[in-house]
Amino acid sequence: MGETVVTLPDDSPSLADALAFDNNEFGRTTRRRTGGTRGSMRMVRSVDSSTQADFAVVSGADRRVALVPAVLAVTVLCGQLYLAAGRNFATILETPFLPYCLIGAFAIHFWTRPGATERWCTLALAIAWSVWFAAFSGHFQFNWSCSIACGSFFGLASLAVLAAQTVRLRGPVQKEKLDTLIAGSVFGYAALFIAFILNLTTRLHPQTYDLYLYAADAGFRLPLCAWITKLVGGSTVLLQSCSLVYESLPLAVSLLYAYQRSGKRTLPVKVLPAFLGGGAAAYLLYNILPATGPRYIFGRTLPAAMPALHLVTVGDAARNAVPSMHLACALLILWACGPLGKSVRGIAALYLALTILATIGFGEHYVVDLIVAVPYALALTAVCATSDWRRNFRAIAIGAGLTLAWIVALRFGNFLFQSAVFTWLASVGTVAVCLFFRRNILTDN
Questions:
Q1: Residue 10 falls within a domain, yes or no?
Q2: Are 172 and 241 found together in one domain?
Q3: End-to-end distance of the chain based on CA atoms, in angstroms?
Q4: Are 346 and 375 a contacting pair, CB within 8 Å?
Q5: Rounded to 10 degrees, what is the CA torsion of 135, 247, 286, 202?
Q6: What is the rounded CA–CA span in Å between residue 102 and residue 154?
Q7: Number of alpha carbons in the 13 Å side-chain half-sphere of residue 225
Q8: Has residue 62 been placed in a domain?
Q9: In a domain, 55, yes or no
Q10: For residue 80, how far is the Cα from the chain centroid?
Q11: Quick one: angle between helices 210-218 and 367-383, nearest 10?
Q12: Concatenated DSSP letters for 114-159?
C-alpha cells in the first residue's frame, strides 16, 4: 500500500476546491489534524499499486477525449482569424455583414457572464488588436467601415479567449466554452457561405425577372418605390439609420440568439434554425424567380413609363430579391420579442420599420418582394416554433402556400397585376391572413 500525504494550512480558502480528493473507486481518503504553530490539516490517501495503474489509464483516456474539443476550438478560431485577416483585411473592410457577425460573437460571449479575468483578458486583447489595426495596418481611415472593422476585433478577441479556455479547461466547463465558441462563430461562417452561394446565382441565371416584379409594383398605381427612395435620400439622419439597420442584421440576430441561450425567458421561435434554415430555403426560391432589385436594372432613376416585359441580362449582382430575407428576418425578430418588455418590442418594431425603408429606399427590393416575405416569415415562425410544429400545421401550410402562390403569380401571371384592385386585395389580404395566423402561433406558445 502506498500513502500520499498533502499538508495544507487550516486557513486555506477552500480545501475541497483546492484538492478534489474524495471517496471513490480509486482509493480511500482520511483526514487528521497534526500539530503546528497555527495548526494544519493533513490529508492521507491510501492507494494500492494496481489501483494507481488503473487511474493512470483512465486519466490518459480522459486527456485524449478532452483533446478533441481543444482541437476543434483551435480550428474554429483559425478559420475566423483567416476570414478576418485574409486578403489583407479586405473581407472585413469590403463585406459589411462580417464585422457585425463578429461583434455579435462578442455579445454572445459576454451574455454568458464570464469571470472577471476572462472579461478583462478579452477586452485587453480586443483593444490591443484594434489599436494595432488603426495604427500599423495601413488600411485604417476615419470612416464608418473602418470603425466597424475595428469593432470586429472584439469578436475575434472573444473567440480567441474562448478557444484558449476550451484548451485549458476540462469537463462540463470545457464543453460550455466550446459551445459558446461555436455559437459565436456560426453566424460569421454562415454569412460568408450565403455570400458564396448567392454569387453562384449570377452564373446560374444571367437573365432575371426584374421587369416582371417592377410591372407588379406598377399594379399599386402609386410610385411607392420612388416615394420611399426620395424619403430616405432626403434626410441624412434617416439615410444613415437605414444603412446601419440594413447592415447590422447579423448583430440583431446574434443579440436575440444570445438572449435565448441565456435561458432567462423562453422565446416562441428557435432562433438559430429559423434564421439559418430560412436563408437556405430562400436560396431555393431565388432560383425559381431570380431577380436583383431596381437599382441594378435602372440605377438611381426609375423609368416613368413601364418597359415591355422581357428577361433582363444583369451583371454581377446576387439574384436574391424575392422574398426579401431582410424583411423576413426583421419580422422574425419582432415576433420572437413578443414575450419581452414593451421597450424591447418597440425597438424591434422600429428596426422593422427602418428595414422596410432601407430595402426599398436603397433599391435592393421591389414592394412585392416585401409582401412575399410576410408569408415566408410566417412559415419559418411556425416550423421553428418552440412548441411542437405539428400544432402549427395550418400556419405552415398558409405561409408556404401563399409564398409559392405569389412566386408563381409573379412569374407566370403578371397580367393579374394589371388590375389595381387585385394587387391591393392580394397584398393587404396576404399580410392580414399572415398576421392572424402568427398571433395564433404566439398565443399557443
A1: yes
A2: no
A3: 61
A4: no
A5: -30
A6: 7
A7: 29
A8: no
A9: no
A10: 15
A11: 100
A12: --HHHHHHHHHHHHHHHHHHHHHSS---SSHHHHHHHHHHHHHHHH
Q: Do residues 144 and 150 touch, judged by C-beta distance below 8 A?
A: no
CA 312 to chain centre: 33
CA distances 401 to 373, 375, 414, Å, are: 12, 8, 18
Q: Which residue has the cell 439559418?
A: 276
How far is it, in rounded angstroms, from Cα 110 to Cα 69? 21
Q: Which domain holds residue 14?
A: 2-47
Q: Quick one: CA dihedral 400, 401, 403, 408, positive or negative?
A: positive
Dihedral angle computed from the Cα positions of residues 306, 307, 310 and 315, in that order, rounded to the nearest 10 degrees: -110
In whole angstroms, give the CA distance from residue 199 to residue 320.
10
Q: Could you tell me if residue 280 is inside a domain?
A: yes
Q: Give CA–CA dist 367/370, Å, rounded.
A: 5
31 forms beta bridges with 43
Tens of each residue's pLDDT in the chain, 445 residues:
444 444 444 444 433 333 333 334 333 333 444 444 444 444 444 444 434 433 344 455 455 556 777 777 777 777 777 666 666 666 666 677 788 888 999 999 999 899 999 999 999 999 998 888 888 777 777 777 777 878 888 988 898 899 888 888 888 888 898 888 888 888 888 888 888 898 899 999 999 999 999 999 999 999 999 999 999 999 999 999 999 999 999 999 999 999 998 888 888 899 999 998 998 899 999 999 999 999 999 988 888 778 888 899 998 899 999 999 999 999 999 999 988 889 999 999 999 999 999 999 999 999 999 999 999 999 999 999 887 777 888 999 999 999 999 999 999 999 999 999 999 999 999 999 999 998 877 655 5
